[in-house]
Amino acid sequence: MQYQVDKQQTGSPSRRRQALKGPSSQRSEPHIQSQTTPSSDTQALLGLIPKSLNPQTTSAILAELSRPISPADEEGYIYIFWLTPDSDMSPDEETASTLLNDDDNEDEHGSHSERRDAAIQRYASVHGSSPARSPSSGPVPKRTLMVKIGRAQNVHRRMSQWTKQCGQNITLIRYYPHHQSSLPRKAPCVTRVERLIHLELADARAPGEKCKQCGREHREWFMIEASRAGLRGLDEVVKRWVGWAERWAAAAAANGNTQRHR
Question: Which end of the chain is more exposed for a tag (fewer CB within 10 A), N or C?
Answer without folding.
Answer: C
